[in-house]
Amino acid sequence: MDQFFAAIAVLDDPSLRGKPVLVGGGGPRGVLSTASYEARQYGCRSAMPTAVALRLCPHAVLVKVPGARIRELSGKLFDILETVSPRVQPLSCDEAFIDATGSQRLLGPPEQIARSIKQQVRDELRLTASIGVAPNKFLAKLASDLEKPDGLTIVPRNTQDDPDAVARFLAPLPVGRMWGVGPSTEARLAGQKLRTFGDLQRCSIDQLRRATGGREHAEHLHRLCRGLDDRPVHGPREAKSVGHEQTFREDLNDPAHVRAVMLGQSEDVARRLRRKGHRARGVTVKIRFGDFQTITRSAVLDAPTDLTAELYRAATALFDKWADRQFRPVRLIGVSASPLTDAADEQPTLFPDPQREKQRQIEQALDTIKDRFGNRAAHRGQLPDKTQHRTYDPRNGYG
Amino acid sequence: MKVICDRGALVESLTLVSGVVVSRTPKPVLTCVKLSAKDDALTLTATDTEVSIHLSTPRVEVSEAGEALIPADKLQQIVRESTDPTLTIATKDDQTQIVGQDSRFKLLGYPAGDFPDAPTFPDDADFEVSAADLHRLIAMTIFATARENSRYAINGVLLERHNKDLTVVATDGHRLAQAKGKCKSLQDADRSAIIPTKALNLLLRLFDDAEQTVKVKVNDSQVLFATDTAVLASNLVEGNFPPYKDVIPKDGDKKATIPTDIFISAVRRAGLLTNEESKGVRMSFSDGGLVITSRAPEMGEAEIKVALPEYTGDAIDVGFNPAYLLDALKVVDENQVHLDMKAGNKPGVLRTGPNFLYVVMPVNLQ
Q1: Which of B92-96, B142-146, B241-245 is predicted least confidently?
Q2: CB distance from A388 to chain B under 8 Å?
């Protein structure tokens, strides 16, 4: 997707169209998740501290896009992609590989499939996507970036008549476009006057090894500069853990406040576990301090769980064990559940707990309410009321 | 205080008591061991306020009675690293000197009076049991305890006494081990207590001389075990033990007799092809014998055949966690075990004679 988060902000607030838009966290510690193309002209980039971006582009509009909205549109996007092929490998919430090998008889040649995806995205999401069509994942990803925004790039195929079509297509591209080539490799290659894919294509593996210093790296470059990549497209990977973490505007110096945040996080984690039919066999608490020192504390649960109360109890037990002795102000707190098991694999217990069953029913009822009426429709009484915090309104910006 | 100690004996005693000592605590005195010299005996005391040990160390010569409270790990390191046959320990105020042939250590300690009182064994023991029996009862059950208490107090072992009968039970909610033994009753009262796992692990090491007799006293909040040379006291686990008798199945109508060693080997081998996602092994019992199969996704499958000396009842397929079976089979001291089952989704019961029983919940087989 093109500037996905920024595009959503513009979609929800058309007055932002044409303006430099920054999406990300505010405050002294906020980081950008996306900069619109207008903002990128000023040098703003994703993952840049918001404060730095605002210095580069003081008239940019900083907005926050609600997670629920992102999930909604991302869900719709993947619904569209899955009509093309069952082999969809997500890279992030707005980026995926699709293996359309088996879809051509039904949906036509690859270019037609790509156009149809772009059209559906425009019709149903009112957003634009850039697509690269190529014989493998490396080339497809590379191609999708070449003509952003709203791009469609078709990488030619090697044929018997033209066995070097891919190499010729790649030859003029700068080496920095290559997967695995960062600024330092790029500089080292430039020192050998190797600036484009074509330059690399003319090198032997030994020459590349001298240029990069590593045999493996050289082989990697040797293959990629010719567009060779045989990694398969695999479906979404099974989640290994489910977690939530939050960085605070200012370090929290009250353990009770941190615990309250952990309750909300435990609630979110437990809800996601229930949605996927997973149970947690362990809980990890992550604590980061003002100086960025980070500690984690983990515990194995006696019985796998997907219940908020049980996750919260285990998480706060870990937190309290640390906090009772050596509490200091907390910059970030996170609760995560791992490893995970399937609810169906759970070992039955000798002493079933009627309370626990009741609790599960209550939490499932809460899930249903939240799924239907939004996250704020119902929560535990101990949670700080999130509605008092600044919220983003599509019409009026920040409340 | 001044004592001359046999170094080897002291190393052994320190190793035993330091099992109690906590290394990280806001109370520094709890990292210490207390030495008390009196009447030609040196007693070492350690406590974490939940569990405490008194142990008198043999082969000492007391030249001046008294007490010392010094960091346990340092004392242990010094005594262990030394090569002298004997060491002299002398205390003046809070300072303790440990003197060998070519060495002199001075350790800064604490006033002995700062150490929490560790309970001493009362005169009226409830019952006596041989150390060997006590060992057996604990070893046959302790592995089944839970790491933490849930709504039941199961992070410990239930000890029940009725006259001369001792019953020891442990469970983590998925399996339950029960061992029975006899004791010599000294008091009539029937007692039951849940003893923390930590205390019992210490007990296994402390009372390892099978010839000894162990006196036991249970009161409302504590249990005490004593021999001539040592006392182990522990707070009890608070809370209720689950109603364990209700979950011991009595209606298993499919009964297999399995040679213990062959069963262990078969379960262990089938367990090789299990993983986190498929923890269970499938056991298919029939007149023809037992077939254990397992499957690990993306790895492979296993099939092990076991001939059964005896099987009665219809054929049955049931899945068990191999680790749970092995935990129990490892402590079994007979050549054959009996496994009673009712259905694939009902617990199985493993027995050896009248004194050991193990209930294990099945796992779902897909």
Answers
A1: B92-96
A2: no
Q: Kindly report the nearest CA distance between residue B364 and chain A, in angstroms.
A: 6
In this complex, do A350 and B171 lie within 8 Å of one another by their Cβ atoms? yes
Catalytic residue among A38, A72, A82, A95: A95
Q: What is the CATH number of the domain that holds B281?
A: 3.10.150.10
Residue reference for tokens 């006196």: B215
**Domain for residue B122, yes or no?**
no
Select from B23, B30, B150 the residue whose CB has the most chain A CBs within 10 Å, as the one to mutate to test that interface.
B150
In chain A, positions 272-311, which contact chain B (CB-CB < 8 Å)?
300, 302-303
Decide if B361 and A344 are in contact by the 8 Å CB cutoff: no
ipTM field: 0.79
What would the CATH number be for the domain defined by A242-398? 3.30.1490.100
Q: Into which CATH architecture does domain A68-154 fall?
A: 2-Layer Sandwich (3.30)
pLDDT at B366 over 80: no
Same domain flag for B156 and B209: yes
pLDDT digits (tens, 9 = 90+) for B253-284: 999 999 999 999 999 999 999 876 667 899 99
Across A80-84, B127-131, B179-183, least confident range: A80-84
DSSP summary character for residue B169: E
Average pLDDT over residues A12-29: 87
**Domain tally, chain B:** 3
Contact A339 B276 (CB under 8 A): yes
pLDDT (0 to 100) of residue A219: 87
A386: confidence class by pLDDT, cuts 50, 70, 90: very low
Which chain B residues are closer than 8 Å to A355 by Cβ? 151
- Tell me which chain A residue has its CA closest to the CA of residue B324: A347
Determine the structural domain holding residue B7 and report its residue range. 2-114
pLDDT given for residue A259 in this prediction = 93
d(CA A379, CA A263): 10
Chain B CB within 8 Å of residue A344 CB: yes
Q: What is the CATH number of domain A4-65?
A: 3.40.1170.60
Torsions phi, psi for A378 (to 5 deg)? -155, 135
> What's this model's pTM, rounded to 2 decimal places?
0.65
Residue B101 is assigned to a structural domain of this protein: yes
List all residues 6 or more positions away from B229 whose beta carbon is below 8 Å from its beta carbon: B55, B56, B58
Region of poorest pLDDT, from A348-357, A377-386, B47-56, B105-114: A377-386
Homologous superfamily, domain A165-224: 5' to 3' exonuclease, C-terminal subdomain (1.10.150.20)
Q: Please confirm, yes or no, whether A95 is among the known catalytic residues.
A: yes
- How far apart (Å, rounded) are the C-alpha atoms in residues A333 and A246? 6
Q: What is the DSSP letter of A61?
A: E
Domain membership of residue B119 (yes or no) is no
Q: Which distant-in-sequence residues (6+ apart) come within 8 Å of B161 by Cβ?
A: B126, B127, B167, B183, B185, B190, B191, B192, B218
- Cα distance between residue A191 and residue A173, in whole Å: 17
